[in-house]
Amino acid sequence: MDQYDYAQVKTYLRGGVYFWCTDTKQINKLMAQIKEIIPSAYFDLKSKLPIGEAYSFEIKGLGGKDWDVKWWIIKLMCQDSWEPIGVEAVPGRTDYDIHQFKRKTIS
After folding, report:
1. Closest Cα to residue 22, out of 59, 64, 68, 53?
2. How many Cβ atoms are within 10 Å of 21's Cβ, its own excluded?
3. Which of 5, 29, 64, 70 has its CA 20 to 30 A from that of 39?
4. Exposed, middle or buried: residue 90 (CB in 10 Å: 0-12, 13-18, 19+)?
């Protein structure tokens, strides 16, 4: 049976980039890359798994570059072999969207 990691990235029109991922190594890698490019960025932990691993955070301190950072995250995910599997949008709302990814871990 195949197994996958799952990730999603979301932005709000008013600002804010949110990232969820079941792969802690991917989270740490992404945080380091963002911090290197945007030193003012910081990460507000939102949720942890029952075993204590972080899986959700908001990226803040982006100097108004929230949408640019979202698209950069999408690019990085695709370069790291994450497959885009969908975009979720709420009908009638244009203030946010959620981009979803999967990556096979076991075949």
Report:
1. 53
2. 24
3. 5
4. exposed
Edge-to-edge strands of the sheet including 96-106? 42-48, 54-60, 17-21, 3-12, 96-106, 83-88
| Strand duo 17-21 + 96-106: pairing | unpaired
> Do residues 15 and 67 make contact, with C-beta atoms less than 8 angstroms apart?
no
Half-sphere CA count of 63, side-chain side, radius 13 A: 7
pLDDT value, residue 94: 67
- Six token digits for residue 107: 């075949």
pLDDT lower than 70: segments of the chain: 94-95
- What is the Cα–Cα distance from 85 to 101, expressed in whole angstroms? 5
In whole angstroms, give the CA distance from residue 41 to residue 84: 25
Measure the CA–CA gap between 59 and 10, rounded to whole angstroms: 10
Residue 65: φ, ψ to 5°: -100, 25
**For the CA atoms of the chain, what is the radius of gyration?**
14
Q: Where are the domains of the chain?
A: 3-106
